[in-house]
Amino acid sequence: MKIKELEPKEIFKYFDEILQIPRPSKKEEKIIAYMKEFAQTNKLEYKIDEIGNVLIIREASKGMENKKTVIIQSHLDMVPEKRTDLEHNFETDPIKAFVDTDGWIKTNGTTLGGDDGIGIAAAMAILVAKDLQLPKIEALFTVDEETGMTGAFGIKDGFMEGKILINLDSEDEGELFIGSAGGIDTVAIFNYTKEPVNENDIAIEISIDKLHGGHSGDEIHKGYGNSIQLINRILWNTYQEIGLRLSTFEGGKLRNAIPKDAKAIFTIEKEKFNKFKVLFEKQKTNFINEYGIVEPNMELEFKQVNFPDFIIDKATQYSLIWSIYAAPHGEQVWDKQMDDLVQTSTNLATLNYIGDNQIRIGTSQRSSIDSSKMNIATKVRTVFELAGADVSHGEPYPGWKPNTDSEILKITETAYEKLFNKKPIVRAIHAGLECGLFLQKYPYLDMISFGPTIKGAHTPEEKMDIKTVEMFWDLLVEVLINTPE
Predict the structure, then answer these.
(1) How far is CA 54 from CA 70, 119, 166, 202, in A?
(2) Of the residues 81, 115, 145, 295, which is catalytic?
């Protein structure tokens, strides 16, 4: 079955079109143009701010003019992640998705972009639905949510007028979200000096791949392996036992994804090669014992390679390997009021070489409490500063504090029970939503977030549960119909 033939067709028609449009974070020009054409074709009022945020307006249906204006919000960008063995250019190629027989929409090795393509599609369907009696709708589509929330940071006062905001960027059907974590990025830069390779040594590449990875908000607590940390453990143990000289070490791609692949090239003395093989196999056994249940597809390999162009100086090698070993990763504090909710976490996300003599380590921290967020960010900072790195923080974004007395929450709970004869779960989420930033500019907003079920967001295993999309659509319509005056 083709995606555009799925029910509800109102949503899947647009989702299928969105899959054809490249829209990685910070490269949203094509999807912005698509939204503009959509508004013009359907004779809808729209505006686009200087950052690229798009607002498309549907006027109230006859008899609904006294209802409150509702903002339905989603983000235009997607996480560009793929299998390492797959050729795919996210800036030019469409997403090749398919309907699986098990009731999920999947891809063959890339992110799907259901986060938040399905939210975009639902908003578009609402904007043009002829048979629905709805209040005035402002559909807000923000840019660059995944890599910095640039759109939400830059939105201006007066860009929208609604008093209620429904965020369409959640991924668990049956759960209504009324709060989210705030976050901050922490980046460490090491400067290194290139040194010549000793021609009497041999060069080795170690690599790890096919770890789960995953969303650093939704899955940080699940115990998945961090590819950077695991490769670093092999480097540290090899250095301790037989010595090595590091050339390159890279892993991870995105600040908000747990790194799932990494590799390093280094040299050792020729006569110690057999000792290295023993060390490597021992470490591989350790990793299988530690992570085998949650990382059944892990691939850990080594091979002898040609000499690299350089090795980095000993002092930087020491500082890099030791600081990565010491750097925290994963959940740090569990919420003391809500069950099964991480309060504070940190993600050791990326490691790459930049320019001609720098190594960049990217990390991100999240917490529902600002002071705790800054505490873990400072802990990460001090680890790398003690190792001699230049460390900086990005602009923090605020959390969204839950309001259990929310009017739109009560309406949504009632609508859910009416439609599905069961109570929804009401909770906060550890992932960062844009809602906290909207509250800074529009402090009167009454907000809620819900969506269909999406698994594996930010990974090539991302998939979307088809039956929950219909439930998501029915709930959205029911809530909008019952918007208060």
Answers:
(1) 15, 14, 16, 55
(2) 145
- pLDDT, tens digit, 9 for 90 and up, residues 202-253: 999 999 999 999 889 889 999 999 999 999 999 999 999 999 999 999 999 9
Contacts of 281 (CB under 8 A, 6+ apart): none
CATH number of 3-180+399-481: 3.40.630.10
CA distance 340 to 351: 30
- Catalytic one among 10, 77, 144, 169? 77
CATH class held by domain 184-393: alpha beta
* Domain ranges, ordered by start, for the chain: 3-180+399-481, 184-393
Cα–Cα distance list, 25 to 3, 91, 113 (Å): 24, 10, 11
- The DSSP annotation for 74-141 comes to EES-B---B-TT----TTTPPP-EEE-TTSEEEESSB---HHHHHHHHHHHHHHH-TT-----EEEEE
* pTM given for the model: 0.85
pLDDT confidence of residue 432 = 84
Residue 378's contacts (CB-CB under 8 Å, 6 or more residues apart) are none
145: annotated active-site residue: yes
| Cis amide prior to 172 (ω within 30 degrees) | no
Helix then strand then coil, in percent of the chain rounded to 5, is 30, 30, 40
Residue 87 is among the residues annotated as catalytic for this protein: no
Which run of H or of E encompasses 476? helix 466-481
Q: Rounded to the nearest 5 degrees, what angle is found at the Cα of 358, between the Cα atoms of 356 and 364?
A: 140
**Is 194 a residue whose pLDDT tops 90?**
yes
Tens of pLDDT, residue by residue over 340-375, are 899 999 999 999 999 999 999 999 999 999 999 999
CA 366, distance to chain mean position in Å, is 12
Tell me what pLDDT residue 183 has: 94
